[in-house]
Amino acid sequence: MSKQVRDHAHASVGMAILSCQALEMLFALCVRLAFKNQFEISLNEITPLEKNFSKPSMKVILNELRQYVEISKEFEAKLSDLIERRHTLVHRWGIEYELPCNNEG
Known about the structure:
By secondary structure, this protein is an all-alpha fold. The protein is built from three helices and no strands.
């Protein structure tokens, strides 16, 4: 595998991980601001978004969203698939698919 192809593969994995993080952040932000904090009067009453923002997980936030709206089975299935793909990319990609490496000694 050429260095250019390997570098492109690594950059693609990095961009996919950054995209997953952006989606998680936006999903949490929307649920918190649109539902959980909808009746807060000032910004001081809203849980700071920068503190441990990746917590809780998307599954926990989905359960929180259920308190406010009905979740379609189609949306839940797509979100569950996305969560599983994200876990594969972040935690298991190298084991299941191998990361591109320099095989030229």
